[in-house]
Design goal:
This protein has 15 helices and eight strands. The protein has 404 residues and is of the alpha+beta class. Strands 1-3-7-5 form a four-stranded mixed beta sheet. It is elongated, with a radius of gyration of 39 Å. The termini are far apart.
């Protein structure tokens, strides 16, 4: 009896191990770890998972983005997003249990921006009952994401000019029109909900609960772009009408005059700008540092700038280059001419008292000749200067010969 039960347990263990190995082999075939520049073609049904391993963080990759692109003409597919293959499989399995309403499915985009500093996976599921499964997954990288840089610039703009925007009438009317259009859409959805039939349909909605509601909202959101493209004229008329009504209401009540309300708007704009700066990079440590620096520069602009410059000069002092003899002579001639020109301009200006100046001079006649355009040195002084300069040059050459 003991031998029989042992044999049964051994057979059961072997079957379990074989099933596990088979499942692991199937999963390994269904998972593809990709690097930027790779492309994977698939023509098989079922779930296929495409993953990208996290890269090391570097300050030069602050605005780096990895993009996965799904190239296919089919629309009968489901997408799942997770940090590892097991999470994607769990979402797919859970989605199959909830009436196929795609509760855990990702929106059917064909391009996905992925955090390059975290492990990311995208699952693509093709229904085996269909006849077409052909698609291609391509992964590329973008070292400078223009959208993230735009978010950074907008965030800095909102933080730096929040006070001016909160007190600007044009900004007030533009924001009021945008809010009015958004509220009109919410009111329209509310009245459409009032028009829904009661009775059995309402009981069905209550029975399904959040499942049906989530499905309806997701369906409307997915089809919003299609509706806007096919009926763009009605959409434009609706936006124009609601914008005019919003402008009329705002014009009737006028701009904000209360200082506290203006301060609240200013704080909201600054907070919105900091949120944009924080989300302008997947490198969260760097984006947090940008937020801190922005706050410091905004509150202590002059002091912080001067201290930063001093610290930079202390850590990285500028290397001074010595002048050559020719450069020294040319620099002396240029600066002397500038000083003499400045002296002439000052003496001709109303600020100069000519009588006091004459009293201080030893040779007023020579000074008067200089002011009339003659040389500031006499012939004897020029000759003496040239002789001294010649002696200095000869002494330098003689010293150089001795050293050699």
């Amino acid at each position: 009896m003991m031998r029989t039960s042992g044999s049964v347990l051994a057979i059961f263990a072997i079957m379990t191990i074989a099933k596990t190995v088979e499942s692991a082999g199937w999963k390994s075939e269904a998972v593809h770890f990709m690097e930027p520049g790779e492309r994977v073609e698939n023509d098989k049904p079922g779930l296929r998972i495409f993953c990208h391993n996290a890269n090391s963080k570097n300050i030069i990759h602050v605005w780096k983005t990895v993009i996965m692109s799904l190239k296919t003409n089919l629309e009968t597919y489901e997408l799942y997003e997770g940090r590892h293959p097991h999470e994607v499989e769990e979402k797919h399995e859970d989605n199959q249990k909830y009436w196929r309403f795609n509760l855990f499915s990702t929106k059917k985009n064909k391009q996905f921006r992925i955090n390059p500093f975290e492990d990311s996976c995208i699952g693509v599921y093709m229904n085996p009952q269909l006849n077409q499964f052909q698609y291609t997954m391509v992964i590329t990288k973008n070292n400078l994401d223009s959208w993230q840089i735009t978010m950074l610039v907008l965030g800095i703009f909102f933080v730096w000019f929040a006070q001016a925007l909160s007190r600007n009438k044009l900004f007030y009317y533009v924001c009021s029109i945008i809010v009015g259009v958004a509220l009109s859409i919410l009111i329209l959805i509310y009245f459409m909900g009032k028009l829904l039939p009661k009775g059995k349909f309402m009981y069905l909605m209550m029975a399904t609960g959040y499942t049906m509601s989530f499905y309806v909202v997701q369906m409307l959101y997915d089809n919003a772009q299609l509706i806007a493209m096919q009926h763009w004229n009605y959409v434009m008329y609706y936006i124009l009408t609601t914008s005019l009504i919003s402008f009329a209401i705002c014009y009737r009540f006028g701009p904000v005059t209360n200082n506290r309300t203006k301060n609240i708007i200013e704080w909201i704009l600054k907070l919105f700008g900091l949120v944009l700066v924080y989300h302008s990079s997947y490198f969260r440590e760097a984006s947090t540092a940008f937020c801190v620096l922005l706050v410091l520069f905004y509150n202590f602009p002059v002091v912080f700038f001067h201290k930063s410059c001093r610290y930079w000069k202390t850590m990285f002092p500028e290397k001074r280059r010595l002048l050559t003899e020719d450069e020294y002579r040319k620099e002396g001639i240029i600066e002397t001419n500038k000083a003499l020109s400045g002296l002439k301009e000052y003496c001709h200006s109303p600020e100069c008292n000519p009588w006091k100046t004459v009293l201080k001079l030893k040779d007023p006649i020579r000074f008067a000749r200089f002011m009339e355009g003659q040389a500031h040195l006499s012939e004897d002084e020029s000759f003496e200067h040239d002789n001294e300069l010649t002696k200095l040059i000869e002494e330098c050459e003689y010293t150089d010969d001795e050293l050699n």
